[in-house]
Structures are given as C-alpha cells and as structure tokens.
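Need residues for this backbone.
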C-alpha cells in the first residue's frame, strides 16, 4: 500500500492513557453494588465496549438491574479521576504533527461519547491537533465497533476512500471494525494483548513513533 491519505486514531488507550483509569473506576462502582470486580477483570471483560454493552454484561453477571443513577455516578467519578490523573500516550502529539506535516489527514474515531472524547483530548492538550469536524463517536452511527459503521462514517466525512485509510487501534473489537471496513489496521500493543491483536488481523505497533515508518513515510 502507498502512503495513506488518512490515519484514523482510536482515542482511549491510543491517544490518551484512559483505559486503566476508566476501568479502575468501573471496577470500584461494580464492586460497590455487589459485583466484585478487579481493575484487571474490568479491563479484560469491558475494555472497548459501548457503555450500554458494559451495562448489559454487568447486569447479566449480577442477575439484576444496576441501581438507578449508576451510570451517572460512574461517569461523574470517571471525570473526576480524568481531571486528576489523565495523561496523553507517549508520542501522541508528535506523531499526529508529523503526519499532518507530511500531508496525511488525521481524525479520531472512538466508542466513547463525543463529550467524553472532547474532554479527554482537551485535558491532554491534543484536541487542537484535530479539526473541528474530525472527531467521531460511535454514538453518531447505527452500530458501534466491532461493526464498520464508525470507521466508514469517519472516512466519508474526511472524504477519503476506505482503502486509503489506516486505523490505529488497541482492542480486538476495534481491529475487527477496521477490518470489516476493509481498512489497514495497526494494533497498538503497548498495553494490550499483542497476540489477540495479531490474530484479529492487526499489524503490531509498539510505539506511536513507529507509525510514519510503518505507513511508508521516510
């Protein structure tokens, strides 16, 4: 493949170091309502899922509905922790700038709600690197990952054909979505299951700084 026209970044775990924070807060919230969950278990079972799917799986394990206000309290506590601890992934700003300098378009496509993504990108100083209309949420399309809808929507808005796109993902759910969209996908494995990403069809990426070389930029 020639140098792509567009690189689509997932947000959580790829641009911002939010996965451990989110799942720590989630584990604490689930444990408080009787579903004992460690951070490691939350990462294993819920990482990359839409929040409604997290709720559905948790309720199935709990054999009862989650209490009223659970989601609101979880999101509020998560924001508090983001404001206190959230950091960008190492090299995120530099690689986005290098891609733009080479004439490659960039955007963000995430399972998270748009307001959450705006917050986390803003807190980490990354928001201004992406255009006003270059941040996309699965809540804006009929189906989230692992379906291709989100990535196809992002490519369409950015006016780039799917086969001219590269996706950077850190979950097998995201890799499956990119493959379903017939896009090349780099699996960021710094804090993920490398074997699972590879089995899903990703080319392994261990540092964001390696992206330019992997996509054919000098």
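Answer:
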């Amino acid at each position: 493949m020639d140098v792509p026209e567009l690189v689509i970044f997932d947000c959580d775990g790829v641009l911002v170091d939010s996965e451990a924070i989110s799942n720590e807060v989630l584990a604490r919230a689930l444990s408080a309502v009787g579903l004992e969950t460690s951070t490691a278990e939350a990462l294993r079972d819920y990482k990359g899922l839409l929040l409604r799917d997290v709720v559905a799986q948790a309720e199935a394990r709990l054999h009862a509905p989650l209490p009223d206000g659970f989601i609101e309290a979880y999101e509020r506590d998560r924001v508090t922790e983001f404001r206190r601890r959230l950091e960008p992934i190492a090299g995120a700003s530099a690689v986005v700038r290098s891609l733009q300098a080479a004439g490659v378009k960039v955007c963000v496509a995430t399972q998270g709600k748009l307001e959450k993504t705006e917050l986390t990108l803003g807190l980490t100083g990354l928001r201004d690197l992406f255009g006003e209309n270059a941040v996309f949420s699965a809540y804006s399309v009929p189906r989230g990952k692992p379906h291709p809808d989100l990535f196809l929507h992002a490519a369409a808005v950015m006016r780039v054909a799917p086969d001219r796109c590269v996706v950077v993902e850190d979950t097998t759910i995201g890799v499956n979505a990119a493959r379903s969209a017939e896009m090349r996908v780099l699996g960021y494995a710094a804090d993920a299951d490398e074997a699972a990403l590879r089995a899903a069809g990703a080319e392994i990426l261990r540092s964001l700084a390696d992206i330019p070389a992997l996509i054919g930029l000098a």
